[in-house]
Every structure is written in structure tokens, then in C-alpha cells.
Amino acid sequence: SCFSLVTFAESRSLLRSTPSLKAGVTSTIDKRAMDHPASSSPLLHKSSCGINSATSTSTTSYVASSVAIISSTSTSGYTARSVDLPSVTPNPAITASSYISLTNDIPAILNHAVDISSHSWELGTLTEALLEVYNPSLTPFEWDGGAFGGDVPWAMFSVLLDTISGYNWTGAPNSDPNNLADYLDPSTAPSPLISQPLVSGLGSLGDPNSLGPAVWVLAKFAQRDDVKGELSLRCAGDYAWAVGNQLSYLKAGFTSANGTISDRDGYFEVWSDMGGVIPPFPAYLGLATYNSSLFNFSLSQWTLEASALLDNSVQLYRHINDFDAQFWATGHGWMMLGAVRVLESINASGQVGQFWNVVEGVETQLSAVFAALFGQLDDDNLLPDYMLQANSTLSIGDASGTAVVVAAYYRFVKLCPWQVNNKMNASASNAFDGVVAKISSDGWLTQVFDPEWTNGWVVYSGSNLRSPEAQSFTATMWAARTAAGF
């Protein structure tokens, strides 16, 4: 057998057959926070729970610090809805048939993501993908501070407003302050911050942060009467206050002695996933408000996470610092896309000089990891689900993980072209082709790791698995290559 299911698999089977855990029904179980039985395979513990419940809740509490901290009862109110996603324009400099094919598929791919996303990190990844595809000037990669007066990201707002519809607005300022950035610091907030996540993280401290940039964009557009009226929005200050609450909740989280914030609520654990959801949030706020202390915070967190997970002997990141200390493809995508979002936020602000020593080190590290990753591509030009893994079941190529790594690479190339070479560019192009080859005729990315976490982070070749994040990653990959221009 490939790995032992032992008692945990039996309990998983019971969980999957329990009516209260079916999609769309409230669940208080955090599958990621379940005990790790010593007899079970570490691959059986899932970072992203995969139950498509739009009303899952969890409860956490902390000792109060400088801001009020309440139990986490914010739930995602998201329900799939139809959004109008127009066709996208290809970069004429890119003539590869795979790129042209993917360009035609982008609306369908993203509509599928809209249909099946439900958890905080899935919805955060979706909002990021929608902005990068349709409103790139609102992202660090093509930042334009004046874009808040331009085109409105209607599709993203449609998803986001449903997502945060269950937010607890008790204590909200109900005002439009002159400076929204005041809400990002308890000492300057016009109304007291209440440390709570934007939505439930189902045991993850990190995941809800992925929604932070989108809510900040909402706050900025809520200052416009036309948008506020069309969407029946709250006052802009309320949304900025909610972002400040999320930032306070993050900073109040469980922290190690060296300052690393945990990915988990209530206990310490480092996951590669957190590299893509925690550091980019304060970095985006730093860019939007020209706040160097937020850049310092985001860079510090990413480098601390990387130092805990990087295996220098192979230049690859381990997935989790304890029970799954293996080399997971998607985990690399989270870490590396998170890093380039942080770096590009700093670069777009014009403040890179004061952080150059750290930035240069991160860029050098990423270059080495990209080179190591491309050396792992299989015959289908996909990254193995788990790399350097003798077990063939665990090393099947994963199109989802490959897509997010390729997305990160094309962003990295544009950010610091001196850190790459022709061989790496060719490998990225091959991997892009490998991902596109796994897209079905109706716009689903196939050959992805199991989003329902039946027996771990495992790819079942030839199965009909559907992954929310895989859909968004594919669109993110397209946007990144479009911007890179080759």
C-alpha cells in the first residue's frame, strides 16, 4: 500500500458521511485543527479543509492586548452567484498556442471558481485573481494609486460582498474619515478596533488575511458616491475599520519566541501556505498607505517563515514544520507568490532602497528555489504533488501546484530579470504548457490534488476532482504571463 490510513482515515470516512458536514450546512469542525494521531500518515492532515460549506464557524479567543479581542464568529456568507466576466485580451507579444487557448478559457475558468469557492483562502485567492485579470492597476503588480477613481471591479465586489455578509459590524464607526489609514493602528483609529477576522478561518489564523486587500479596495471605492449607491455600501470607514480589525487579529495571534506568527489559531505551527496569505496583506496596506512599518512587518514575517521551512540542502520549502515536513508543490506556490507580492508592493512604493539588504536576499533565495523546482518537472511538465518522493502515488504531477508556481515565476521575472536565465524561462514555458494541457473542454483544471482531503493532499490521476484554488491559480498564471510579455 502507498500509505497507511489507520484510524484517522476511518474517522475521515465518518466525517464525510455525517449529514451536518455536507456542503452548505453549518459546521463547527476544523479539519485542519484535528489531533495528529501518531499512527497516521502526515499526508492525511489537510491545510485547506475542502468542505464547501458557506456557513462554517469557529470560535477562538485571546487575552486582550491593546485592542478588544472577541471570539471569532464572523462567517463567510458567500453563496455562488452568477457574475458577468467578460473575455480578456491577450498580450500580442505572446504567440504560444497554449497561451492563446488559455486566454479564451479565462472567463469559464473563473466562473467555475466563483461557483465552488467557499472557504476564506479560496475566496481570498479568487478576489486576487479577479483583480489581477480584470483590474491589475489595483494590484501591486501594475499599481496605480489613482485607479480607485477609475474602473470599478464589479465582479470582485460581487464575490466579496457576499463573502463578508456575515461580518459583525457592532462597534463600526459609520463614518467617512478623511484618512482611512488611521484605522490600521489602534493608536490612531477614530473608533476603537475590535480584533476579529473578516471571516472565520476554521482554525487558521492565516487564511482570512487573504481577503484583506480586497476589503481595503472596497473601502476606497466606498468613498465614491456612485459606487456606494450602486452597491448599497456601508460608509468607507466601516470597511477600513474591518481591515484594521483583521490586522489587529493577526498581530494578536500565537507567536513564537523569534516573532514568527503562527498559521494556526491558538497554537504554534508554520505552514508554507501562510507565506501566501499573511505577508502580502500588510504589504498591500503598506503600498496603499505608504507605510514603511507595514513593509517591515510583512518582510519580517515572510523571511521568518522561509527560514523555518527552507531545506538548504535541496533548496526547497517543506510544507509544515512538523507533521508534514515534505516538499509539497502547492506549498511552494503559496510561499513564492506571496513573496513576489510583498516584493512588488515594496518596489511599487518606491521604498525598496531602505529594505534592499533583505529584499536582495529574498530574491536570491527565490531564484535558487525556482531553479530547484524546475528540475523536478515530470514527463508531463508538471511538478510532482510531493517532490523527492519515492512513493509514486504521492509524486503524481499536480496541475494546481504547478500553475501557482508558474504564476509566481512570471511575476518574479518581471520584478528582477537579472535573477533568471534562459533555461528557467524555457522550463516555465513548458510548465505553463503542462498546466494548459490539463484544462478540460469546459474550463476545469484537472489532475489536481484532492480538495476534499479524502486521504490527504493526494492527486488522483484521471479522477474528476474539482479545486476552487486551482481555478483561481490558473487565471493568476495567465495574468502573470500576460504581464511578463513572453
Helix-and-strand structural type: mainly alpha
CATH architecture: Alpha/alpha barrel
Structurally, the number of domains stands at 1
First-last Cα distance? 44 Å
Query: Segments where pLDDT lies below 50 for 5+ residues?
Result: 1-74
Going across the biggest sheet, name each strand in turn.
Answer: 1-2
Question: So what's the overall shape?
Answer: globular
Give the oligomer, counting copies of the same chain as homo and different chains as hetero: single chain
CATH class: Mainly Alpha
The percentage of residues in β strands lies in under 5%
Q: Count of DSSP helices? A: 14
Q: Largest sheet, described in full?
A: 2 strands, parallel
Write down the overall mean pLDDT. Answer: 87
Topology order in helix (H) and strand (E) letters? HEHHHEHHHHHEEEHHEHHH
Percentage of helical residues? 40-55%
Key attributes of the depicted protein:
mainly alpha, 486 residues, Glycosyltransferase, 14 helices, globular, disordered N terminus, single chain, two-stranded parallel ribbon
Task: Walk me through the structure.
By secondary structure, the chain is mainly alpha-helical. The protein has one domain: Glycosyltransferase. Helices cover 43% and strands 2% of the residues. The protein has 14 helices and six strands. A two-stranded parallel sheet has the order 1-2. A two-stranded antiparallel sheet has the order 3-4. It starts with 5 loop residues before the first helix and ends with a helix.
Set out the fold topology.
Layout: H1 6-17, E1 68-69, H2 97-116, H3 120-134, H4 154-163, E2 194-195, H5 212-221, H6 225-231, H7 236-251, H8 280-289, H9 292-309, E3 310-311, E4 316-317, E5 327-328, H10 329-349, H11 356-374, E6 386-387, H12 399-415, H13 422-436, H14 468-484
Parallel strand pairs: 1-2
Antiparallel strand pairs: 3-4, 5-6
